[in-house]
Amino acid sequence: MIKSKFRWNMLCDKEINDIKKLNNTLLNNRGIITEFDKQQFFSENYEFNDPFLFRDMKKVVNRLKEAIDKHEKIMIYGDYDVDGISGTTILYKTLKKMHANVFYYIPNRFTEGYGPNMEAFKRFVEQGFRIIVTVDNGITGTLESEYLKNVNVDFIITDHHEEKKTLPNAFAIIHPSLNGETYPFKELSGCGVAFKLAHALLGYVPLEYIDLACLGTYADMVSLKAENRLLVKLGLKQIANTSHIGLRLLTQIAKIKVIDEFALGFIYGPRLNAPGRMDSGNIAVRLLVTDDLEEANSLVVDIENLNNDRKEKINLILEEAQNIIENGDYEENVIIVCKEGWHEGVLGIIANRLVDMYHKPAIVLTEVEGVLKGSARTLEDFPLFENLTLCDDILDQFGGHKMAAGLKLSKDKLPLLRERLHNLAGSELSNNLAIDCEVNSNLINIELTKSLEIFRPFGMDNQKPLFLLKDYEIINIFQLGKDKLHLKFNLRKNNKNISAIAFNKGDLFYNININDVIDIVGNFEINEYNNKITNQFIIVDFKINHKQVFDYRSKMILEDYINNIDLQYLYFTNNYKYPNAKLYSNQLILKENVVLIDIPNSLSELEQILHNSNTKNFYLLFKCDDVFSDESFLTRKKLGEIYKIYKRKQRFKMNDPNIESELSKLGFNKKIQILSINVFFELNFVIIEDNIIKFIASPEKRQLTESKTFRQLVEQVELKEKLVLSTSLELKEMINNLINLEAENEN
Q1: Domain 630-706 is of which CATH architecture?
Q2: What CATH number should be reported for the domain whose range is 329-430?
Q3: How does pLDDT run across 311-322, given as a tens digit for each residue?
Q4: Percent of the chain beyond pLDDT 90?
Q5: pTM of the model
Q6: Which CATH code of 2.60.40.10, 2.40.50.460, 3.40.120.10, 3.40.1010.10 fits the domain covering 7-40+434-543?
Q7: Hey, which residues does 473 pair with through a beta bridge?
Q8: 718 CB contacts (<8 Å, ≥6 apart)?
């Protein structure tokens, strides 16, 4: 039995067997109910909202146009992640097109941190800048706003992060989700807000920048509804023919063949993030804004090198973080790991990986002179900014939004933060996996997979559909990848075969049998390999509900195959030097995973173990040194020969040397002698008094099977032969039949 990693939450309680019904189910699950909503969801002609619906947009546009006319210096103050970089590029290129005297600045993550920086702003003032426009930051800049107000520099904030109690005293704020904001769509990213400002400045939708808006929108994990969906959908198509030299070269050096959501999230995103994480985000903006091919070639190589450095550091820190978690007491609902010397630029990625691994919110911190700085990532049901706000008294600094945040605190406050977040998360974490529906096996084909393409692009609030495939028999299973990290399944139901793959589940290979029945949750994708196109199911989670039987009779060391499982070793006669083995009795409390070392004494004893409600998995060693022992051949004929010897003597002691000598000549040992006496005694052929055996002259005729000893002997011999000499398939079938027989009796 294998438990699912998640708690499965079925959004539809019916099995779907029709594509039209399936599409309607997917739409309903995403809250797309009305015909207008459906048309808007699938349309590519959907119009963007008027940017002047932002309450401060007209004020901002007028001020920037005034600055352009007066040739005033404008500073764009961006952020170092993909959202901030792409947004900065959009606004910079827009203002350049309008002949503005514009510059951009990306703060250094390590020396200046996230958001407005007073020292940088003072330099801008000294350099004569009259306007500072933030992109993807600024909503927490209350001190900086007061300073700029006092020196008569107009502070324009464009942001989407969650605000704190006091808003900055800025010239204007363009922020979609502020209280009282009149703009209808609240989920724009930082670059989405910059795109709307570009729209307002230019007087038309700047489709030449929609590929940049697509990159930032997707990377920042905002809701892919309405305008965000349109930005990503249209942007994906444009990237292939982008007018931005740097983006085109990035596509080439990364060898991107298919431009889709995977490319956005796992190829473009990490590379554009790498400069801000490892060096300076200015490098990424320079790549996107340059029109010089030679400069772009140099920059894209630098970015590729920084990305490789990033990956090396991630692998090292992730391994150390896992060791801290798995070797420590981490029962907290929120994982918090910390170590001096960890590279600050990759901590958000590590936190994200830990969320995926342990399915808990995660905070990863590095220590610098007693101060802890780091990043947090979370699950849908534990909003970060909201919960960090409840820890405001513990933290020196924090900012972010629902799914991601940065924070800073003194080292002595760490235990209090652990306790506070553990308690806050205790009542909220559900570990739910939202599953769209169960799909009938007859519906599964490549046409079904192709039909799901109309729901793309997938992302936040429009996740790739998840389907339940129930009660599939495992026909074959094998490990894939250089380090055998993945599992490949061939499955069957109702004579319908499907291929499925479970990434990063390779360690479960020895916990799964061919012919096991499995429930899987995942999504379909088209796989192209060696010019062959196949339909493939990508497994997100799975479970096996029945008790499992594992044949380890031919394997020398069980522990080489089974790792990280609490095994309970049982024996019946011989423990074969297993140090922690326990002698089985029906009073023994059995665990979930039981190893049977040797042969049970009887079939009923085996059945007791198999039907124990605590035990889910059986690992069968069934060691036996005497499967072909002499007593195994104690047949009716041989008992007759022994009977003749005893009858001639009529009366003798149990250890009579003459009897033993005669039996030995016929090949019968002492054990057989004792067994035969017990059989004859139970059949009333002899009586035993004071260790003297007396034969009855004319006993009543009896069947050998009336002797309990003979029946047990036959059963034991048969049991040994079945458990030791059967093929693996025969053994599992026998054990499963015994398990299922009990289940049928219960029903």
Answers
A1: Orthogonal Bundle (1.10)
A2: 3.10.310.30
A3: 999 999 999 999
A4: 55
A5: 0.78
A6: 2.40.50.460
A7: 492, 517
A8: none
